[in-house]
Amino acid sequence: MALVLPFTDASCDAALPEVQRVLARHGVVALPTETYYGLAVRPTDEAALRRLVEVKGRPPDKPILVLIGAPEQLVPLVDAITPAASLLMERFWPGPLTIVFPAASGLSPLLTAGSGTIGVRWSPLPVLQRLLTHTGPLTGTSANRSSESPLADAGAVQKVLGSCIDLILDGGRAPGGSASTVVDACECPRLLRAGVIAADHIRAALEQSGYILSS
């Protein structure tokens, strides 16, 4: 079974060395996000990405989102920040909005699913931001097997995935509810998935700058 460590503001620094060790060994870490628990590997680690896909049973045509701890961590991930993306970042980040950008060259097709784009979210959780500032960007795909429900607490993650992942950071029960909202901001803004942030709020923010949100 996976090792479980507490993951709070007080315990984050103590957990960091083990997180770094697991990631260095191409490991998979489960951690809480602002919605559900996610599965974290380094987005530049091809071996770890293959493990992640295997753990989830994820189809190859589904891209994998990446979590960042600060906007400057976008640099190795994206080829460009479009004006629409910049507006969404300013209005809704940090928060439960995954923005799809043109992907930087050289990213694994396991991340992009060959789409040429990459979904990124700046998490609003202070403890997760703190971790990511030390580790760099990490994947944040939901901690569940594909086609099954996302998991909202460490115990459920251990029961379902503990035999095939390395570390669970137990931050208590995640809020659950809707997943993050996903918007493709590469060209004309397009709603890819409804979620925590209502589409009407995103549409209104975009319309103030002359953009129309399609779906």
Strand content: 15-25%
CATH class descriptor: Alpha Beta
Q: Distance N terminus to C terminus?
A: 42 Å
| Major sheet size, sense and barrel closure | 6 strands, mixed
- Portion of residues within helices: 25-40%
Radius of gyration: 16 Å
Output the structural class: alpha/beta
Q: Runs with pLDDT <50, length 5+?
A: none
Looking at CATH, the homologous superfamily is DHBP synthase
Features:
215 residues, alpha/beta, DHBP synthase, six-stranded mixed sheet
Provide an overview of this structure.
With 215 residues, this protein is an alpha/beta fold. It has one domain (3-207): DHBP synthase (Alpha-Beta Complex), CATH 3.90.870. The protein contains seven helices and eleven strands. The protein has helices at 12-24, 46-56, 83-92, 109-112, 126-135, 154-161, 199-207; strands spanning 3-6, 29-32, 37-40, 66-68, 97-102, 117-122, 138-139, 141-142, 167-170, 181-184, 190-193. The strands form two sheets. It has a six-stranded mixed beta sheet. Helix 1 (12-24) packs across helix 5. The chain is globular, with a radius of gyration of 16 Å. The relative contact order is 0.24. The model has no long low-confidence stretch (mean pLDDT 96).
Break the fold down into its secondary structure elements and pairings.
Elements: E1 3-6, H1 12-24, E2 29-32, E3 37-40, H2 46-56, E4 66-68, H3 83-92, E5 97-102, H4 109-112, E6 117-122, H5 126-135, E7 138-139, E8 141-142, H6 154-161, E9 167-170, E10 181-184, E11 190-193, H7 199-207
Parallel strand pairs: 1-9, 2-9, 4-6, 5-10
Antiparallel strand pairs: 2-3, 3-8, 4-7, 5-6, 10-11
